[in-house]
Amino acid sequence: MAKTSQLGLKNPFFGRISADLIAAKNSLRDQLTGELEKAVPQALVLRRKKSFSPASGVNIVGVGIGEKVTNRKRTGEMCVKVLVAKKYPKGRIGRSDSIPSVIEGIPTDVEAVGYPRKFQIPNRRRHRPVPGGVSVGLDFNAVNYRFAGTLGVIVAGRENPQRLYALSNNHVLADENRVGIGAGVVQPGTLDQGTNADQVAGLTQYVPLKFDNRRNWMDAAVAEFDRIEDVSRTIFGIGTPQGAANPTLSLIVRKSGRTTGLTEGVVRAVRFDVFGIQYDQGLVRVDDTIVIEGISSSFSKPGDSGSAIVDPQGRVVGLLFAGSDVVTYAIPIGRILRRFKVKIAR
């Protein structure tokens, strides 16, 4: 059995957290709450300036229960853990702002961790110029709900390479056949705070989807960019693609997508006919696809639809369109490029 002391519980990783620890933590939290609420205007000003203050109302990040650390060494003793934006020497802190060394017989520990902030995957942000691998979707004139998919890769017309297009899925850029040619495409997608003012392209072509498990060869669409100068011929996190290639079994691949960012996987099956994919308008079948399994975690999640699949040489081999918790499905890129008479922009 772990040894206990008046000031805490030795080896906190075994045994339960005592009621005394919880009560002490709650007591200190409640003491600090009033100061935190009063200091909100000051806290907002300081954070915009990336400045700090020893005042508890702006410096406190949070209060919890954890292991006491002394001189950068873990002690094995449980304590009330106080995280602050910046740790100050005792002489720099006013008496009313200092954290007591003990609260209700339980030791405290103060650690500096910086200001907390919301994390946002960079693929979901607004990018100008616009690369592949980032959030994209239709504007509110086209659909009246918020959503986002992935702009897979920038492609160029074969006959006129100066015309650049965003390549993604039909269900991302054409809402499963439900919008008209010319519909506004925004980056980022409206689910990621994109608005009509963020329009970068207009829907140019899509291959209509067939439902009820009738055969499809692709889920794909292209949208021509409004301004060439707003386009980057790169894939975010991967770089400039080196043309196109055919997918092969056991090929190591990467993708950059709106939801999961940059991931790695391996092609586990080719010429795979997949049935019963749930779309808004019914079940979809797509023939001759590739199946990808993530190497260290899920290769993709909802919102990654439209991502370009890239081989170790930087060549695009597929376009992601669906998946499950275990595998991802993609369409070989050559078929799509031929259908739209485009090539990978470089």
Structural notes for this entry:
- With 346 residues, this protein is mostly beta strands.
- Helices cover 13% and strands 40% of the residues.
- The chain has helices at residues 19-38, 40-49, 56-59, 170-173, 333-340, and strands at 4-5, 8-9, 60-70, 73-84, 102-103, 106-112, 130-132, 134-138, 149-151, 153-157, 164-168, 184-186, 199-206, 215-216, 221-225, 231-235, 252-257, 261-279, 282-294, 308-310, 316-323, 327-332, 342-344.
- The protein has an eight-stranded antiparallel β-sheet with strand order 9-8-12-13-15-11-10-23. The protein has a six-stranded antiparallel barrel with strand order 17-18-19-22-21-20.
- Strand 3 and strand 4 form a beta hairpin.
- The relative contact order is 0.12.
- Residues 1-14 have low confidence and may be disordered.
List the helices and strands and how they pair.
Elements: E1 4-5, E2 8-9, H1 19-38, H2 40-49, H3 56-59, E3 60-70, E4 73-84, E5 102-103, E6 106-112, E7 130-132, E8 134-138, E9 149-151, E10 153-157, E11 164-168, H4 170-173, E12 184-186, E13 199-206, E14 215-216, E15 221-225, E16 231-235, E17 252-257, E18 261-279, E19 282-294, E20 308-310, E21 316-323, E22 327-332, H5 333-340, E23 342-344
Parallel strand pairs: 4-6, 7-16, 14-19
Antiparallel strand pairs: 1-2, 3-4, 5-6, 8-9, 8-12, 10-11, 10-23, 11-15, 12-13, 13-15, 17-18, 17-20, 18-19, 19-22, 20-21, 21-22
